[in-house]
Amino acid sequence: MSDEEILNKFYDPASRNWAFHVLVKQYQKKVYYHIRRMVIDHDDTDDLVQETFIKVWKGLDNFHGQSALYTWIYRIATNESLNFLAKKRRRFFLPIGDVEAELRNKIDHSSTKDADEIQKHFQKALLTLPEKQRLVFNMKYFDDMKYEEISEVLGTSVGALKASYHHATKKIEEYINQF
Amino acid sequence: MKTKVYISVDQFKENFEQVPEAYFQDLDNRILNKTIYKSELKERMFLVLNSKPEGFELMNQEQNYFDSLIHSIESKTISVLKNQYWSIEKKKVEFQVPDQYFDQLSERINARIPSQKAKGNEIYWIPNLLNRPIYYAVAAILCLALGIGYLSTNLNDSTALAYELESLSKEEILHYVAANTDKIELNTIPNVNWEKEVSHHELSEKDVNDLILTDEL
Predict the structure, then answer these.
(1) Higher-confidence residue: A32 or A106?
(2) Which of A154, A156, B70, B176 is 20–30 Å from B154 (CA)?
(3) For the segment A36-91, what is each residue's pLDDT rounded down to a tens digit?
(4) Of A16, A42, A50, which has the smallest distance from its Cβ to B112's Cβ?
(5) Cβ–Cβ under 8 Å, residues A50 and B108
(6) Residue A106 near residue A41 (C-beta atoms within 8 A)
(7) CA B166 to each of CA B160, B162, B169, B177, B199: distance values in angstroms, whole numbers, following the listed order
(8) A36 and A42 in contact (C-beta within 8 Å)?
């Protein structure tokens, strides 16, 4: 079902709940993995996924289609993830590196399917990136999003995103080659 | 009486023989995965590239040509390997998710969102109202109106009082003071003969001011 059809059904009070159910089904995995790659822990991700979709429900009446539904949902999920990480730092007065160290620790203790050393190392390499750069890398590398779409989500110019992705790739390669 | 427990070495053997289920099923792949890494692949690639075929020396070609050819193949192969590495990692990085998590997610989210029925009878409680800018504007106007009303009333009162006080004669003020003041207290005011002053109505302006303004009153 296309986004437009979902939205039309959502705006009709008779099919509102059903349309939202379809929307959640359609985007739940993308939203889940997008958040999970940022916060690593499943329980934290679960909370944030729910919060994201509740915000989607509340905001959908005011969504006028200035951007694609997909990028709009991604923007909400991105903000939720960044706010969560920022709150975590504020709550425990942690410097930036300490949160990443905690996330690295979570990677060491399970979190991935059939995790082997190289895979864990790759994930740790991702955690060495600054948050915004990690977001850019995740959306480009894992979600195969176009730079224009990422630009809509993050509100950053395409040129800056390309540079950011290039730097991210270089940093990851350097980290992996130390292995 | 304690009985001596005999521990057989075979018991340990049994323990060692216990292997997780399906451990051997994918063992070869896991070992390969851990062992063959980029550097190793690179090493093998160099071996292949550097091994010269039979009769190689007999070929009448410039050595530089082959060197550059090898270099070109090497860089291309590294690039291919790198791309392969990235695509392999991309597929592999899958986080563990509890069983049926995605099947139940939409139901859990639906349970948390406000229902359709409630929307018709929505009660506009304070936090909801605070989200609407129009209510801020109305509240500000109300505060401004109340403030202006209060100030104008108080200003009028104080002006009228000042005007009334100005219109009073000294005698009226004196009688008011005498009628509302304890005589004993008045007698404590130095340099004023009350019996005389009240009966003869000959108080100076200074005396009246003193009477009005003194703390003793």
Answers:
(1) A32
(2) B176
(3) 989 988 999 999 999 999 999 989 888 887 888 999 999 999 999 999 998 887 76
(4) A50
(5) yes
(6) yes
(7) 10, 6, 8, 16, 24
(8) yes
| Contact residues for A39 (Cβ-Cβ < 8 A; gap 6+) | A45, A48, A81, A84, A85, A103
Whole-angstrom Cα distance, residue A55 to residue A84?
Answer: 15
Please give the structure tokens belonging to residue B163: 């005007």
Q: How far is CA A134 from the centre of its chain?
A: 9
Angle value at C-alpha B62, between B61 and B67, nearest 5 degrees: 115
Query: Please, which residues bridge with residue A112 across strands?
Result: B95
Q: Are A158 and A134 in contact (CB under 8 A)?
A: no
CB within 8 Å: A42 and B95: yes
Q: For residue B190, give every residue at least 6 positions away whose Cβ sits within 8 Å of its Cβ, in sequence order, or none.
A: none
Interface predicted TM-score (ipTM) over 0.90:
no
Q: Which residues of A touch B108 (CB under 8 A)?
A: 50
Which tokens belong to A41?
């822990």
Q: Does residue B117 belong to the interface with chain A, where contact is any CB pair within 8 Å?
A: no
0.95 surpassed by pTM: no
User: In the structure encoding, which two tokens stand for residue B142, read together?
Assistant: 């109300």
Task: State which amino acid sits at residue A62.
Answer: N
Q: Rounded to the nearest 5°, which phi and psi values hold at A15? A: -115, 15
Cβ–Cβ below 8 Å for A110 and B112: no
What pLDDT, on a 0 to 100 scale, did the predictor assign at position A162? 94
SS3 assignment, position A143: coil
Least confident of A26-30, B37-41, B102-106, B139-143: B37-41
Question: Residue A112 phi/psi, 5° resolution?
Answer: -125, 150
From the CA of A69, how many Å to the nearest CA of chain B? Answer: 18
* Side chain identity, residue A113: K
